Amino acid sequence: MTTEIRHIVFDIGKVLIHYDPHIPFSRIIPDETERNWFFANVCTHDWNIEQDRGRTWEEAEALLIGEHPERKEQIRAFRKHWHEMVSHAYLDSVAIMEGLIEDGHDVTMLTNFASDTFREAQEMYPFLKRPRGVTVSGDVRLIKPDLAIYTTHTESFGLEPSATVFIDDSLANVEGAKAAGWQALHFTGADKLKADLAGLGIRAAA
Q: What pLDDT, on a 0 to 100 scale, did the predictor assign at position 206?
């Protein structure tokens, strides 16, 4: 029998807000082939995730500029134009989260995010200040799906793992939450999220 859910934990990127580095870089590097090469070989996912783990942008930029000095301005453009990458909120998902908070549910957030850009995102999207709290990977220097970040969140906010449900767009992060003893939902859209929550006995009014 499934444990009653008492804690709801939201991921942020691609669940509550959009994220796409191609938005500014379609202007900075207009040629699609070159742009794809740049993301595959210079400002890669693996490079960016280290900022989510707590590495400073200054250190990250210096590392790449040392390897690709001819790409210096494009490398620096990643942080400079980061705000364009988070171009809009997913209003239907946000409405679900805010409705859960207003209905008295315990809502927190757990996100892979650089510390400074997360605070920038909170100013752009004030609803990110509404949950009871947030674990930001860049602050704790741990990233999903490492088991330790789920444990850190559990301990920080006094959650009972089996009574916690996590909502994330990444299957790897969903599996990480399950490995930590949480229940977890793979986010693919607001309508499915409402149905999945209803299956756990949680009514989402949005």
A: 55
